[in-house]
Amino acid sequence: MNSDFDTITERLGQEGILPVVVIERASDAVAIADALVAGGCSLVEITLRTEAALDAIAALANHETIIVGAGTVLTPAQVIAARAAGAHFLVAPGLNEETLTHARISALPMIPGIATATELQIAWNLGAHVVKFFPAASLGGPAAIRALSSILPEVRFVPTGGIRESDLPDYLAVPATLACGGTWLAAPELLSTQNFAEITRRAKAARTIADHCPGRTVRVPR
Questions:
Q1: CA-based, 20 to 30 A from 153: which of 81, 103, 176, 221?
Q2: What is the 3-state secondary structure (H, E, C) of 72-140?
Q3: Does domain 5-211 sit in CATH 3.20.20.70?
Q4: What integer pLDDT is reported at residue 165 of this predicted model?
Q5: Is the pLDDT of residue 128 over 90?
Q6: Where are the domains of the chain?
Q7: Helix axes 53-60, 29-38, angle to 10 degrees
C-alpha cells in the first residue's frame, strides 16, 4: 500500500474511523484486518505496547487492502523498528521533535499527539497539520477540538482516548475532525475470544455513523 501522507489523510477523511488495536497474538493480525475490512475500515493502528506488535505489523505490511500503522511511537528507535516491520504510517500519543524528525527522515507519515494549545502550536511550527488529540474524552472532547481548531483552522485532528461508538456523531460533526481513533472496534475482550464477527459488526456500525453523520464536512489538509 502507498504510504504517501496524502493517501493516509484522504483515507482517514473518507472513512472517519481509525481502529486502534493492542494485539497480544501476531497470529491474529490477518483475521483482525480481514474483519475490519469486512466492516468497511481500511486502516488500522497497531500500538507498540506488546511484544507481538511488530510481528503483527509485518504480517499486515503487504495486505491487499489494509493500510497498517504503528501507534504509541515514542522514540526514534521505534520509528526504525516500525519502518523495518513495514508500517505505512506512525501515530504518537505525544509530541517529540526528535521522533517526528526521524520519521520524516525515514519517509514515514507521522501523526504526533497533542493535548494543549501550546503543543498544538509547537506541532504546527514543526510542520504537522494533522495531529492526534489524546486523551480526547478527558480533555474536553468535541468542545475542546472546536476551541483548538479556532487557533489554527488548517490543522486536522484525530481524537483518540475514551471515545465510544455513541460519541462518534458529536466528534465527527466538528469540521476539524479528520477521523476518530478508538480501541472499542477491536476491544481486548473481542481479541482474547477471537470474536472477529463482532469486530466486523462494530466496524460496520461506526462506518454507518461516519457516512451519515449530519453536518460532517471532510476537509483534508494540503
A1: 103
A2: CCCCHHHHHHHHHHCCCEEECCCCCHHHHHHHHHCCCCEECEECCHHHHHHHHHCCCCEEEECCCHHHC
A3: yes
A4: 96
A5: yes
A6: 5-211
A7: 60
